[in-house]
Amino acid sequence: MNFEERFDWKLCFILCMFITISCVALYSAQQSPQYNENFMLKQLVWFGVGGVIIGIMLYFEPDFYKKISWPLYIAGLVVLLALVVAPASIAPVVKGQKSWFILPGLGSIQPSEFMKVFTILILANVISNHHEKVRSVTIKDDFILLGKIVGLTALPLVLIMQQPDLGTALVFLAIMAGMTLISGVSWKIITPIFGSIAVAGVGIIWLAIKFPQLLDQYLGVKQYQLGRIYAWLNPQQYGSSEGFQLIRAMRSIGSGQMYGKGLGERELYLPEAHTDFIFSIIGEEYGFIGSCVVLLAFFLFIYRLTTIATRANHKFSTYVMVGLICMVAFHVFQNIGMSIQLLPITGIPLPYISYGGSSLLAFLIAIGLAFSVSYHHRTFMFGEN
Fold first, then answer.
1. Rounded to an integer, what distance in angstroms lies between the CA atom of residue 228 and that of residue 231?
2. What pLDDT is recorded for position 103?
3. Cα–Cα–Cα angle for 108, 112, 364, nearest 5°?
4. 3-state secondary structure 125-160
5. Who wins on pLDDT, 150 or 223?
6. Do 99 and 114 form a contact (C-beta atoms < 8 A)?
């Protein structure tokens, strides 16, 4: 087949939808008096850089990414470790987090964003290799595989929590959970483990609400550190502090009603409007209809990734696609959920739409992997090659 037949035009169309939505939303966000930068133009530059990277990635088969998964993973860990020990001159603390390197002439770079993709690659590598070597699966083999998955996820997770960056850490947990579910590990092992984690999570939230002093006494969690949970449950009470952004975000979305106020007609001031709360801008200016268009774009995207995953010829490719689906789906659910009080605010961006060089570039690399898997898909008469 030639290029036109092998290239995934459906995925390209969805990416073009994201580019359009992002540019329109950022154009609106940058009209606010709080900004004096052209975020839309910078975003287009990053889309252009990402487009070149996708074009390069397209011509490498998935086996190539499997081969380089270990070097990428180890390099990512080294950079995360360097970030922890780096001086403030090149890794400043911003809003209580030490998550970025400052590169002269290039701006800031957030290593954890790229580490998400590297972790997906290494987990897909380890899971696929495990099943190639182990034909007759036992409970012991399942525990060994589960240990590998948890261990490889825990290493970057520990370094990211040193920053600290809870939102990004939750993304790693979502990736690990999703890839564990399709790894072939017995449900007799998964069910009690996941059940225990869910009960523990609910229990910690309950303790934070009812008995915060116990968390301080036994886990060292101070009451002020639980501010986002309290603001999530009762934003009006914390309207001048942690609950300010949430209240503004909900008012922005609600004021858009069905059809929105129109392009550039935004009235409410909203901090971080171009990054974490870009969905609120869309809700205010384009209303329920515009918000549904965004949700539809993400539905089509995840559906397309799922289609690519189910028809992939190699298990490694399937596992990579599942990891990407988990990463994107969690980002979307968490970002939109925190804008409508469905979930606590964690500060993670809306994929392909929020402004941000590192985040956008990492997600474009992720879609580059999807393009590669789709482009190199082959149909064999007698099944897998």
1. 5
2. 80
3. 80
4. HHHHHHHHHCCCCCHHHHHHHHHHHHHHHHHHHHHH
5. 150
6. no
Sorted by where each begins, the domain ranges of the chain are 64-184
> In this predicted structure, what is the pLDDT of residue 381?
42
Dihedral pair phi/psi, residue 379, rounded to 5°: -100, 120
Can you give the pTM of this predicted structure?
A: 0.91
Question: What pLDDT score was predicted for residue 219?
Answer: 63
282-294 pLDDT, tens per residue? 999 999 999 999 9
CA angle 257–263–266, rounded 5-degree value:
60
Q: Kindly provide the b/e burial profile for residues 297-332, where b requires at least 16 CB atoms within 10 angstroms of the residue's own CB.
A: bbeebbebbeebbeebbbbbbbbbbbbbbbbbbbbb
Residues 6+ apart with CB under 8 A from 41: none
Q: What is the mean pLDDT of residues 238-247?
A: 78
Mean pLDDT along residues 188-216:
82
